[in-house]
């Protein structure tokens, strides 16, 4: 392993920002999924190892003091590795311990892996190449190329299409237009995943997905409340006072609704199972709120009756308000 400063091409007095910038530049140049450089995989592994040393404040200080080598392994006092002389393994520094010096307290690491918990280059890989590269880290070209990023979009559908299903056109952030199938019974705000319709992979992997959020358009008289529907239903004064059977609209056509005698304006009646269907279970309900409506033109008989009530049968409907 070469000197990490040499590998990253920075001076020993470089600050953290300079080191990170140098690593970003080299990682982008030699990433195995994209680089056409000779021995890109080996160079990429080398710069990743160098950044693990210099990108970590404690490791960098230990390296500068000579306490660890370029691979992050400790240099023990009086012994710097096996020499290339007789009995040595080659490739290291000659032992300085004299004859009879023991190995007690020495720790040898012949295995691979990272020494300590230095900076994770995958944080920068994510910035450079997307989440796929971040998951792979600096493992090189052995893993599959990263997939593209997911994209999001919105589509508006009518209440009828939300209930019964249908199709809608959606425009993706790239400007591409697709037709998306709307499943029957979908709720407002739910997402539909379109496989492989997202951003392309920079490294030649599969594209990401498109996540389409469904928005149910405003209906002329129904309001969506989860899987329930709400409806304001006008009733005549005499229907509210005397009670009546009247037609009320639903998603499946009009049904007969019984208005109890003496119904106040604002009273809510429930029609079970007349809301939005649920593919996994029972449908929601239709909640009908009565709105008492007076005649458009002033009725003299009604006005006379109300004056009689005012004088002979007064009552205060706001007594509960104090």
What are the key terms here?
322 residues; alpha+beta; Helix Hairpins; HSP40/DNAj peptide-binding domain; 4-stranded mixed beta sheet; 3-stranded mixed beta sheet; 20% strand; elongated
**Low-confidence sequence ranges:** 79-116, 132-141
Q: Biggest sheet, open or closed, and with what strands and sense? A: 4 strands, mixed
The class by helix and strand makeup works out as alpha+beta
- Counting DSSP H or I runs of 4 or more residues, the number of helices is 9
Helical content band = 25-40%
Distance between the termini: 86 Å
Average residue pLDDT: 80
Major beta sheet, strand line-up: 6-7-11-10
Number of strands: 11
Please state roughly what percent of the residues sit in beta strands, choosing from under 5%, 5-15%, 15-25%, 25-35%, 35-45% or over 45%: 15-25%
Shape: elongated
Query: Order of helices and strands, N to C?
Result: HHHHHHEHEEEEEEHEEEEH
Can you identify the CATH class of the domain at 222-300?
Mainly Beta
The CATH topology of the domain at 222-300 is: HSP40/DNAj peptide-binding domain
CATH architecture label of the domain at 222-300: Sandwich
Tell me the radius of gyration. 38 Å
User: What is the CATH H-level superfamily of the domain at 222-300?
Assistant: Urease metallochaperone UreE, N-terminal domain
Keywords: Chaperone
Protein name: Molecular chaperone DnaJ
Organism: Methylocella silvestris
Pfam family, one: DnaJ
């Amino acid at each position: 392993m070469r000197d990490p400063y040499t590998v990253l091409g920075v001076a020993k007095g470089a600050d953290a920002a300079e080191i990170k910038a140098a690593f970003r530049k080299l990682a982008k140049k030699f990433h195995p999924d994209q680089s056409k450089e000779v021995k890109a995989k080996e160079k990429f592994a080398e710069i990743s190892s160098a950044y693990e040393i210099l990108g970590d404040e404690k490791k960098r200080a230990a390296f500068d003091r000579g306490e660890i080598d370029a691979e992050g392994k400790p240099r023990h006092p009086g012994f710097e590795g096996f020499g290339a002389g007789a009995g040595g393994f080659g490739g290291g520094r000659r032992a300085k311990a004299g004859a009879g010096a023991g190995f007690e307290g020495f720790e040898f690491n012949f295995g691979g892996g990272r020494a300590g918990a230095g900076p994770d280059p995958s944080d920068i890989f994510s910035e450079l190449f997307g989440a796929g590269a971040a998951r792979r880290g600096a493992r090189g070209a052995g893993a599959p190329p990263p997939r593209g990023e997911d994209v999001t979009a919105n589509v508006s559908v009518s209440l009828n299409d939300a209930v019964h299903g249908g199709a809608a056109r959606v425009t993706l952030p790239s400007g591409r237009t697709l037709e998306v199938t709307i499943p029957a019974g979908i709720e407002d705000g739910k997402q539909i995943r379109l496989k492989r319709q997202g951003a392309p992979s920079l490294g030649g992997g599969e594209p990401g997905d498109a996540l389409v959020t469904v928005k149910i358009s405003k209906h002329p008289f129904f309001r969506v409340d989860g899987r329930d529907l709400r409806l304001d239903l006008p009733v005549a004064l005499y229907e509210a006072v005397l009670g009546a059977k009247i037609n009320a609209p639903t998603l499946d056509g009009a049904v007969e609704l019984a208005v109890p005698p003496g119904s106040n304006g604002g009273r809510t009646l429930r029609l079970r199972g007349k809301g939005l269907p649920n593919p996994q279970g029972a449908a929601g309900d239709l909640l009908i709120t009565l709105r008492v409506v007076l005649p458009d033109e002033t009725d003299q008989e009604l006005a006379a009756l109300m004056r009689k009530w005012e004088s002979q049968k007064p009552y205060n409907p706001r007594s509960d308000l104090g």
